[in-house]
Each structure stands twice: as structure tokens, then as C-alpha cells.
């Protein structure tokens, strides 16, 4: 609003305000909030003090300021007077207009009283004439009404006399509804005068109506009659006060038997279809599912559909409203059996398209039946049934996938007679990889169809389906790990580096299978889990129906950790099994002969060839499964330290034989002191998933076992020379298998040194006996 109107409003508000604290501000014309206390120098407040105001002005302003303040205050007083004058004029004009309006109203009402008196006189005249007409016509009207009552009575009497004839015509035309209506209309007259005036008519009518009742009963039990006609018959019997309780019981039993027959035929059809499923092509599964779920079998075209059953239920509800509970039980049992057939089918291998087709057929029937019998709560019942079916389908799919992976691992294992070991392990590994990754992706595609379908029933289960799929993968990989352990034998995994040698147990598990499992575990950890996680994140995100307190359904980090650990254990188990097998060969070699009486060597012992054959077999298996290493890690030429043992050379044997016992003991001391100052060499490193690493580790273990077997024996000169010959022959072939020549040289020298120590020990023993 403009400044003038605002100022006027504030002035009026301060003038008419009953609040003593309301008033103007410190300056002239300035409004002050009523929440603040007015000061004595406020010119617009009730507590204004002129002396205080003037004293403040004199203190604040000079002479020119006082003159200016005087001019402003005079102008403001003039403006206030003008505003008040205008307000008075405006209110005066309004009072004048109100007075003129009242005068006009008074002038208009003056002539209305005469008009009202004229209207009253006319109404009174009309009323008197109307009374005169009614009085003159009263006798004639009474006579007409009496004649009309007589005519109606004669019509009723004529109807009673004609009733038997009418009922006969209705029976002949099968118009039972008209017959019942006629008889009910005449029944009050028969009750009042049936024993006197209309005795013959009553007897003939009752005979006719008894025939009607008999025909209606026959119509109810006649299966060829439509359900609407049978329902009408029951309603007519009720109108005739015929007892229908026994009729209701019989009809409900008949309906129950009918539904049981449908279920039995339905079950037989499902069983035959399931038998056919075992020998059918995948393209025939959809046709079989239609045959199972339809209420019409291929051989019975007259069987009622669900739509006809819904009409029957609707008619029963109309005829027998108190039979609702029994009808609910029958319908729920019918759909329970139908969902049970699907659950039986789910146990077999089937696609999600077939599951959706079967559920959709039943859901359409549920919607149709729910419109008739909503109290049965069939949608909620179907939701629980579909929930159980979908969860069972997902669980069964993962079980089949687990079986496929197991078959890929076990059914393709080689037999020694076939001679195809060189490629069988690789085929087994590739088949297992395909079974894991492709089988998982195929399952995700199947489960994706469940989410993409627009069926209302599945839309309510979307979050649960996502959780079930993720839980399924978590459980699948955990069970797969347990299955791997079962294939290898849990006892071996518990202690894969055990030193106990049990040939019978080693032969029970194929070493190639253990190596395949090790590499397959690495594949699952590095490739399968990330790929499956990407697909789950793209298509199965969300969920959360299981509750956040239970944590995520699928934890890929945990699965990767499980298979990383499993791969390492399987690899160590493979190395241990191969080492045990070779150690058995070495044990037989060193425990069988008498080394103290060994003859001079003429050729390399046969165990060397057997050892190389075993290592070659290991190489064949490893090359099929494991990749080659990138670089050779340690060669003899790269070693900078001394790896030569400082033990006595065998050429000093003649010198040792000529020394005394004290010299021999000094030599032992020198040998052990030399070990303390040799450069330390890392012999046993972490096993890598490469051909060279696995073979090197097996050879190192075998050489250490060889060294231990040597230390348990005592050798004469010829036995020691045999050991030298065998070890020297093994040097070059072993270096072809490994990537660490220095370690092999070191271990071979350790074996020679151990044999030399045992020979010196024998010499020392003989010298000691001679001295004694």
C-alpha cells in the first residue's frame, strides 16, 4: 500500500487501541510495536510528557534543528487534521446511504398488505367450492368403489376355480415358476376357505403342486440340466416350504465326488505326462504342462472347466448360503492338488518358461474363482503356494547344476586301459569350467525370466526371488567346495603335508583329479565369481526381503577366500600324494639290499629309471592342467654363494683309512662347522600354480626323502659308489624338470654327503672295534 494509507491506518490503530502500551514510535508518525514499552518522550503514546520531550530536543538539536523540527511538526499537524476531516466525510456519506435505503424499503412494504388480503379471499372461495363438489359426488364415489371391490373379489374367485387348469397347463409347458407363483398366490384363500367353499379346487391344486415338486426334484438330480435351471428348481422348492436340508447334503456330496473325480483324472494325467517327460524332447515340455494343468483331459471333452465349476459354486452359494464353509474347503483342496502337481514336476529338470506357464494357468483360474468365492482367499493361498514352488524351483536348479559339475569331474576321468591320459585331464578341466560358468549364467537367464514376467503373482515375490537367487549361489559354491573335499577325501585335506605314507589311501584318489580341482578352484575364484557377481549386480540387484540383520545373501569375498584356500590345499595335496608314491619307491630301494655287503656297481640301478618315469608321469599331468612359468627363477650360473659342501671328497678315502680315530672325528667336526658358514639357500618356497613350481617342489621333497633314507643306512665302499653313480646319472635329467638348478645341485650333494657320512661311520666303527 502507499505511504499515506499506511500512515493513516497506523494512526487509527493507535487511536482506537485499548492497549496502553500501543502507540507511536519515538519520532512523529512512527509506529512502535505494542510489545515494547512506550517512553515518556514518545509523542504518540499515552504516557507522553511534553517537558521531557522538549528537554530532549533542546539537548539534541541546535537552533536551526529546532526550527526545522517546528516546521515538520506543523506540517504533520496539518496533515493529520486533513486526514481526520476526510474520515468524517466518508463515514457521513455511508450513514446517508443507509438512511435512504431504509426509507425505500418502508415505501415498498406499504402496498403489500392489501394484496395479501385479496389472495386470502380467493383461496377461501376455492376451498368452499371444492367442498361443495366433494359433497355432491360422495355417494357415487362410494358406489363405484364398492363395485370395484366386488369385481376384484369375483376375479379372485374365478382364479381359484381356474387354478387346477392353470397348474396343469404350467406342468405341461414345464413352466414350474408360474405354477409355484399361482399356488402361493392362492394359498391364503385355501387356508381360509379350503375346507368349505373351495374344497375341490384345493384338492386338485395340491395334487398338481405335488406333481410340480416331484418334477422339480427330478430336475435337480438330472445332470443334463443346466446349473441355472437346477438352482431355480431348488429356489422354487424353498418357496413351497419343501425341506431342502437333505437335498443340500446330497448335492454337496455329489459335488465333492465330482471334484474328487476331477482330481483323480487330473493326477493320472499328470503322472502319465511325467512318464512321457522322461523320454520327451525339451520342445514337448510345454505341451505336457498344458495337459497336466488343464481341467480337461485330451480324452474327455465333456469334463467341466474351471469356469463351469465357478458357475456351480455360484449357484450353490445362491441356493445354500450356509454351505459356504464346505465349498471353501473343497475349492482350496482342489487348488492344493493342482499346485502339488507342479511341485512334483519341479523336482524334475524343467525350464522357468514351463513353470510360468503352469502358474499362469492356475492363477487365471484363481482370479475367476475369487470373483465367485472371495471368502476362500485364493489369491493369498496361491501366493504362498507360488512362493514355495519358486523357491523349490531355484533350489532344485542349483542342485542340478551341482550334479552337472560333479558329473563333469567324475564321468570323464581316464582309465589306464584307454591310454588317453594325455588329454583327458585337460578335457575334464575344460568341461568342469564350462559346467560352472556356463551353467551359472544359464541359471541366471532362467531366473531372469521370473523377474521379467508381468504376472501379478510373481511381482509380489520379486524381492524374495532376488534374495533366493543370491542365497542359492552362496549355498551352491559352499556345497561345491564340500563336494570337492568329498572327491578328494576329507582326511587328506585335513593334513595335506603329512609324512605318513599310506599307499592304499593314495590309490583311492586319482591324483589327476586333485590337480584338476586345484586349478578349477583358481578358475572359480578369479573368473567365475567376478563374472557371476557382474550378472547379479546387473539383473538381481535389490532384494532385502530377508532383513538387513541377516547380512547380504551373496558374499563373493567369502566364496573367493574359500576357493583360494581350497586351491592351495588341493595343490599341496597333489604334491604330497605324488611325493608319497615316489617315497614308497625310494624306501623299497634303500631298505631291501644289505648296503654293508654291496658289490661294486656296474650300471645305474633300476630305481633311477622308475623315478624318472614317475616324474615324467607327473610332468604329463601338470602340463595338461597348469600353465608354464614366465621366467626361470634360479639357475646355477646366477648363484653367487658357495653351494659346495665342505665334506671330505671320496678321493680322500685312502688317506682316511690310514689315519687314526682322532683324525676321523676331526673331519666330522670340520664338516659340520663348514655348514655354518655356507651361504643359506632357499630350497622350499611357496608353491605357484605353474608347471615348473609344482614339479620342482615334488623333486625337492623326493630328494629330501632320499637324503633321509640314506641317513638310515650304512654303506661300504661299493654301496657308496653305487649311490654316487645313481646321483650323478640323475643330475642332468632332473634339471630338465625344474627351474632351480642350484637347489637341485645342492640337494644332490646333500645326498652324496649323507652317504659319505654313513660310509665314514662304518669305517669308524670298524676301527673302533680293532682298537678295542
From TrEMBL:
<dbReference type="GO" id="GO:0006869">
    <property type="term" value="P:lipid transport"/>
</dbReference>
<dbReference type="GO" id="GO:0048193">
    <property type="term" value="P:Golgi vesicle transport"/>
</dbReference>
<dbReference type="InterPro" id="IPR014812">
    <property type="entry name" value="Vps51"/>
</dbReference>
<dbReference type="GO" id="GO:0015031">
    <property type="term" value="P:protein transport"/>
</dbReference>
<feature type="coiled-coil region">
    <location>
        <begin position="63"/>
        <end position="129"/>
    </location>
</feature>
<keyword id="KW-0445">Lipid transport</keyword>
<protein>
    <recommendedName>
        <fullName>Vacuolar protein sorting-associated protein 51 homolog</fullName>
    </recommendedName>
</protein>
<dbReference type="GO" id="GO:0005829">
    <property type="term" value="C:cytosol"/>
</dbReference>
<dbReference type="GO" id="GO:0016020">
    <property type="term" value="C:membrane"/>
</dbReference>
<dbReference type="GO" id="GO:0000938">
    <property type="term" value="C:GARP complex"/>
</dbReference>
<dbReference type="GO" id="GO:0007041">
    <property type="term" value="P:lysosomal transport"/>
</dbReference>
<dbReference type="GO" id="GO:0007030">
    <property type="term" value="P:Golgi organization"/>
</dbReference>
<comment type="similarity">
    <text>Belongs to the VPS51 family.</text>
</comment>
<comment type="subunit">
    <text>Component of the Golgi-associated retrograde protein (GARP) complex.</text>
</comment>
<feature type="compositionally biased region" description="Low complexity">
    <location>
        <begin position="639"/>
        <end position="649"/>
    </location>
</feature>
<dbReference type="GO" id="GO:0032456">
    <property type="term" value="P:endocytic recycling"/>
</dbReference>
<comment type="function">
    <text>Acts as component of the GARP complex that is involved in retrograde transport from early and late endosomes to the trans-Golgi network (TGN).</text>
</comment>
<keyword id="KW-0175">Coiled coil</keyword>
<keyword id="KW-0813">Transport</keyword>
<keyword id="KW-0333">Golgi apparatus</keyword>
<dbReference type="Pfam" id="PF08700">
    <property type="entry name" value="VPS51_Exo84_N"/>
</dbReference>
<keyword id="KW-0653">Protein transport</keyword>
<feature type="region of interest" description="Disordered">
    <location>
        <begin position="633"/>
        <end position="659"/>
    </location>
</feature>
<dbReference type="GO" id="GO:1990745">
    <property type="term" value="C:EARP complex"/>
</dbReference>
<dbReference type="GO" id="GO:0042147">
    <property type="term" value="P:retrograde transport, endosome to Golgi"/>
</dbReference>
